[in-house]
Amino acid sequence: MSEERKNWFRNMATKEKVEYIWDYYKVHIITGILVIYLLGAFTSSVLNRKEYVLNIAFVGKYMDFDRLNEFSKEVTKELIGDPSGKKQASIDFYGLVKNPNGNFTLDPASTQKLMARMGAQDIDVIILDKNNFDILASQGAFLRLDEIKELNLSGLNVAKVEEPSNEVKPGAYGIYVRWNNKYLKNLGYDYNDKIIAIMANGQHKDLAIKFVKWLLDVK
């Protein structure tokens, strides 16, 4: 074999080398690039994944979402305090709209989302209106607060279930949020006459109790 044939690739011009490599190895090159991209994306998602260890739901007529985002950061800092930033509080708003009878009710999209998250045990604390509280409380959705030793209810206006049923026993299942609450008054949220309750099937009950005490300034 002649030296010329041995060195055929070396003797090519740069453009010819690039064209040759692309023509014969483009499938391998594209596959390699995709593999590297997917591995990078997967690694990034794992490293930056957030773990929501306290899930809070607000139900109301309006909310300032910029302030709600800042409130979420404050809750994370005060109650979770994870320096890595991976463990956080998640706060969602579900809107009430006026129905043909003039009463406020959850809009269909909010109803569907809220019910799905409740069913998935993905809400720990909820702040909501009396009407929706009564409906959910009668179905056993909330934790009974007067049985929680670390939660002192004296001096608080509690929301009770008076009539026993198969799902729930009489007792205190919610607390009315006081007017001029120092955390909620700056949210642009209609929190007056709202009730805060802890979900019975929530996965982070200790943090939920801690949040209620912090929000209501319960010692």
UniProtKB/TrEMBL annotation:
Q: Keywords, A to Z?
A: Membrane, Transmembrane, Transmembrane helix
This protein's name:
Bacterial extracellular solute-binding protein
Species name: Thermoanaerobacter thermohydrosulfuricus WC1
Q: Provide the transmembrane region boundaries.
A: 21-42
Its taxonomic path starts at: Bacteria, Bacillati, Bacillota, Clostridia, Thermoanaerobacterales
